Amino acid sequence: MVKKLILIGASTGGPGRLHTILEQLPHDLNAAVVIAQHMAPHFISSFVKQLSFSTSFEVKEVVDGMKISPSCVYICSGECQLIEQRGSIVFVHREPSDVVYSPDVNTLFSSAAELSKTIEKMGIILTGIGDDGARGSKAVFDAGGACMFESEASATVYGMPRCAIELVPQGKVGSMEQIVEAIRRFGGIHV
Questions:
Q1: What digits encode the pLDDT tens for the residues 1-17?
Q2: CA distance 105 to 152
Q3: Cis (ω within 30 of 0) for the bond into 15?
Q4: What distance in Å separates the CA atoms of residue 109 and residue 154, rounded to the nearest whole number?
Q5: Is 102 in the active site?
Q6: Which residue is catalytic, options 11, 77, 102, 137?
Q7: Is 38 annotated as catalytic?
Q8: Cβ atoms of 6 and 180 closer than 8 Å
Q9: Rounded to an integer, what is the distance from CA 58 to the centroid of its chain?
């Protein structure tokens, strides 16, 4: 079973940031990466293909019941939640309902916070408009996970990171380079 989860939430300006992060991580990262990038569902499959071509990771679009494996990248659409089932972490995927954002970062992060404490979690909020991810980051932090937020100087739009910092002032704030370094350390890769 996966022992480390890296959760990333992003909106405006996020796709470029995600390419930058994933291009700099080794394929044998000792963690699974789950991404909620605000994007219309019909663009998700082409985004998955773009990331697959530009990174060394296996990149998958989330489907209901999919099991998580280490060293893979998962792209959410709609509402994605994580649950533990028969010794595995599994996605529960639903079409968006009454959430404002799709995919919803708060839903993803909050579900991860409820997973077993033996699973290490790191929540990252990148550039974006609005406040999605703030409540989810608080849930991850309160469950013992690490949180990191893109700095105002680095972010294209500082809304999402700012709101997350307001709710989780104990989280780390950093540039893209610092975020990549933190992910590498979390994933067991020496920098």
A1: 899 999 999 999 999 99
A2: 19
A3: no
A4: 23
A5: no
A6: 11
A7: yes
A8: no
A9: 15
Two tokens, residue 34: 């789950």
- Spot the catalytic one: 110, 132, 137, 154: 132
Q: What whole-number distance in Å separates Cα of residue 168 and Cα of residue 136? A: 10
Q: Pairing mode, if any, of strands 146-150 and 120-125?
A: parallel
- CA-based torsion, 169, 164, 161, 64: positive or negative: positive
Give me the pLDDT at residue 191, please.
Answer: 46
CATH fit for domain 4-186, picks 3.40.50.180, 3.40.630.30, 3.10.180.10, 3.10.580.10: 3.40.50.180
**Cα–Cα dist 160/11, whole Å:** 8
Cβ contact 35:86 at 8 Å: no
- Amino acid 67 reads K
Q: Can you read off the two tokens belonging to residue 96?
A: 């968006």
